[in-house]
Amino acid sequence: MTVTSSVQWRMGIQTRSSSFKGMSLTVTPPAHSPFSTQVPRSLLFVAPFWYCCPAMHRVKVAVVGAGVVGLSTAVVIAEALPHCSVTVLADRFTPNTTSDGAAGILFASQFPDVPVEQQRRWFKRTFDHLLLIASSPEAGVAGVFLSSGWQIFREVPPEKKPYWSDCVLSFGTMTDAELKRFPQYKFGQAFTTIKCECPSYLPWLQKRLEKAGGIMIHEKVTDLAELGLRYDVIVNCSGLGSRELLGDEDVHPVRGQVLRVHAPWLQHFVRVADGHTYIYPGAGGVTLGGTRQAADSQAIFERCRRLEPSLGSARPLGEWVGLRPGRRNPRVERGHVRVHGRRVPVVHNYGHGGWGITLSWGTALDALDLVRQCLNERPPEARL
Ligand code: FAD
Predict the structure, then answer these.
(1) CA 91 – ligand 1 centroid, Å
(2) Which of 239, 272, 301, 351 shows the greatest Cβ crowding within 10 Å of its Cβ?
(3) What's the pLDDT score for residue 39?
């Protein structure tokens, strides 16, 4: 690999300063693994000639963002499109992204304007992908586990089943005996979902990306058009950063706060349906939440202790505050930037609000389809 002296390597991530020259890359084909999203090589015969001839032109794809959405998207592209070189550019990597602090439970409320079938597909594809990991020896290192528990309601809800009820495992109504533990609540759902702990999962994704030939560069992107000078396709997974990068004022910060406590006797999750109070046991402690605006740790702790009195004996481990990339609906669609009269395709994948982990793999696969569409429509024009 040829890299100018201004690029330094730090734990597999390049730190880029202003003078950067192109690099020649040897890209390792992705290893065959049960997790691989690689397309069968036979399928490449139906692709246009330039598309399957890496020696002629390796398509350069830039993915902006290294949270759970950016890394998932980079992995699926790098594995499915081996003729592309995939570079992740981000100003924050794990453990410093919003994704790192999330409770990481697979659960979602419904976005208002996205067809429910599409949301269900996003959820199911993420669930199935993570279930495969949770059922493998990789589970511990990837921080992905099955998690069983209850969602409780003060009043019986009009919709007794969420749209994802058949995506999770063993979904059902809580029995009277189960509900008895929560005397203030009249209705409950019992199910097994997944807890995905990003401080382990993101490094695992980074390794998987490197195995598929992807690289990571530490860089703040200030102008997508400038990226278009260096890359053939841009994939924007910058989360809340899209507000500044694109001027998208629909994206807004939604503050969230969680505590972690040591309470290893707690094994079941409990979530109050309004989302303001939850107890999620995990590998390195129990996550207590949460807030969707300002609040303090003491208030969260008291609400959770009212649900689960044994928390009175729990030892505090830490607290964390983060800003969700709130948006009325996630944006998963195509656009473009103009670079000296040339249209460079952009695929957007951001604005997942409080459900970015839950929908990460599903939206990444939709973004992959959009990248494929861009590539099938026409070969990348010569870069200037
Ligand atoms: P981020 O993780 O914020 O990553 C954005 C990336 O883009 C970063 O790498 C950043 O550096 C980069 N970036 C931005 N702008 C630029 C730029 N201009 N140039 C270069 N790089 C840029 N979700 C769930 O599914 N389940 C949960 O249980 C859950 N619990 C949560 C609890 C709390 C308290 C909070 C705050 C959130 C929770 N979430 C949960 C939501 C989840 O954290 C987010 O939806 C998710 O992290 C969004 O991922 P992302 O990759 O889009 O954004």
Answers:
(1) 13
(2) 239
(3) 41
